[in-house]
Amino acid sequence: MTSTQVAPARESHVVSSRHRFMTRHASWIPVFAAIAILVAMVIGAQIYFDGDFLSPPLISSILLDNSYLLILAVGMTFVILTGGIDLSVGAVMSFTGMFGASLLRDGLPSGVVAPVMLACGALIGLGIGVLVQYFDVQPFIASLAGMFLARGLGFVVSLNSIKVTDSSILWLQRTRWHFGDWYVTATGILALLVVAVGALLLAYTRFGRTIYAVGGNEQSARLMGLPVARTKLLAYVVSGTCAGLAGVVFTAYTGAAYPLNGIGTELDTIAAVVIGGTLLIGGSGFVVGSMIGVFVYGMIKTIINFLGVDQSWTRITIGGLLLLFVVVQRVIVARSARRR
Amino acid sequence: MENALPLVQVTGATVRFQSDTALDDVDFRMFAGEVHSLMGENGAGKSTLIKALTGALPLDAGVITLDGRTVQFATPHDAQLAGISTVYQEIDLLPNLTVAENIALGREPRGRLGSIDWPAMRRLAREALADLGLDIDPASVLATHPLAVQQLVAIARAISTDVKVLVLDEPTSSLDFDEVAELFRVIRELKSRGVAILFVSHFLDQVYEICDRITVLRNGRLVGEYLTTELLRIDLVQKMLGRSAAALAARPRLDGYEDPDPSVTLSARGVTVLPGIADADLDLVEGEVLGVAGLLGSGRSELARALTGVDRLEAGIIRIDGQATRLSSPRRALSVGVVYSSENRRTEGLIGELSVLENITLALQAQRGILRRIRSARQRELAASWVEALDIRPPDIDRPVGTLSGGNQQKVLLARLLALSPRVIVLDEPTRGIDVGAKVEIQNLVGELADTGLSVVFISAELEEVLRVGTRVAILQNGRVVDVLPSDGLTTDSLLALVARPEEDES
């Protein structure tokens, strides 16, 4: 980690540009740390497997296998930036998948079903947002309630797996556009699109900046005349909608919906967002960072696959990384508090 | 100015909080191009009136007109749109966002598609900052700047709109002398542009320097509106307090230190805690108030912390009743009867959410240990007796301390320490940030405590107060106690000269 203390340097403009960077973009440092870890992992694996690890199909598959997680992570980033948390996303993804699959089985066209799935996610998100904003319920508890609700609703739809045969849903996953050895699916493009839209919303709209403002100091944001209530509500709606979309993508990915899908996915999502450099206290973080976090997660999974050891090592590694990042966050927060 | 119509006219403003009436039928007006001060003790209704004016609080009755039109603000944002901007006492900005956003957010320039136009926003911020003579990078994160700069950013935000009325609520409390002068320059500049400025401060000097007109409130009611030039200070204080000037006169003192055989309670020799305090000698006599005077950075608080075991001594010795004592922790100091009241009463003293009762009994219970619980009836009795003795208002021991005014919070803190029946009490800035009336009460209280045999170290940045309260005055310079003089022979001016005397001159 670089120190904030500007060391005396020979050329003064080096000092000032470094100072300028630190005063402007200090919150990107955790993202760079995540990138560094990703790169280190890739290089390490490449050396360990004698250069037999990294290949275009492998990288392509990381995006393919984790597109649902990427979409969830974007929504989660909005919520965590406001200082909240959304534990419902895994269950909502599962429920919207079940509900959508059952509607498709009943013969509804996918053009109707997919929007309905998004709307279901948005609605549950709205409910959580209302609880948090107007009933002053802790986000942890409110979204826990949302999680149980969605999980239960999924079982109400069906206790068994529902196979999806709708061609346009399956097309999302099956069609692979090849560029040499590289390929991408519609789900991958969708996920990257969500990342792009999320990043633009956060950086270039009042809604996005208000998200950061609320995470920085809700009271101040209110006194500055920013629409705090609406923004917090919308953050949960965004997360819910993303969960609905992830339901579509995940259904396409597995070709079926199952009520036990996505158990613990909310925690994977939170882990990815935190590893990607978003502070859990809110106000600092980036969608792009969360994307890196998802890739770190995907890379760990892939490497463990390659090693041929048990997948439980994925969790152990993620756990260790998460611990490391939370400690790094504490250090950053403590340091900025000291500066003030 | 008298002939013109007022820019802001508040008529019959009333605000109630449950059973309390915080503002009772108050009329208030401001003219364009004037600096107006709202004066009153804590709890007089100043903040309530400001909040009503700026849309942070609804009026239960009364009318506000702006430019002749009746207005009603549901939110601070509405008030801002109408041209009323506010800079609050605690800096209410967003430390995690950039300076530019802190200035422009809420009315940020938009490009095509309604997206934020960052270059335009930075330009706007740079212009607003230039108005204040501030040259900082608008793209830098606010938290990377010192507090005074953040305060100026808050003002830049307030004036970067089409501002008609600017409300400054205690804007100078975190600024140093030069920064205050800079702020006044900005205020005069805005005044010449025809902005009406509401300047609220408990520094009388500043009010008299900058304000044209003063409105005085007391207990939620209007006392009157006066031209600054026609209102003598003593009259102003009298109107704020609703008491006669005689009551404010200095209390008679017992001349304890002239006792032929003074018993020294605490004696410090060569006390050193670098870099704050070096080789300090002090003797504290039973029943005296030792004032400590020094400039900012002279080691006032460091001395207090060294004497009370908060900071470990690097060198030196402290004797209590002639016995050398190692004050290794505040707890140890407490056990020999030395207690400390921090200058930061909110962060290092009281627990705002807890009741007066709990705050008073906290330390006593801690001293006795968890197994020897004070019976709750005894606790209540104890707290009630202190509330009565120190005249803490409102006399409700179950009220959260955070809802009390600053002066009463200070009294609760005093009560907690006094409940430990200390021999030596070190008060660091006990009257900071509280209003004139409460200040006098605290000062008198300190005197009465000394008369009962308690030894008090009284630290204050206000020399006048140090002289009034202290029997003797210790003068600090650069972390050294350079002199200890009886306060009777000193005036504020001569003390100032001693405190500010350059080190070379001492011989």
From TrEMBL, chain A:
Pfam families found in the cross-reference section: BPD_transp_2
Membrane topology summary: Multi-pass membrane protein
Keyword Transmembrane helix: yes
Transmembrane segments: 28-49, 69-100, 112-134, 140-162, 182-204, 233-258, 270-300, 312-333
Localisation per UniProt entry: Cell membrane
Database matches in PANTHER family: ABC TRANSPORTER PERMEASE PROTEIN YPHD-RELATED-RELATED, INNER MEMBRANE ABC TRANSPORTER PERMEASE PROTEIN YJFF
Name of this protein: Sugar ABC transporter permease YjfF
Organism of provenance: Cellulomonas alba
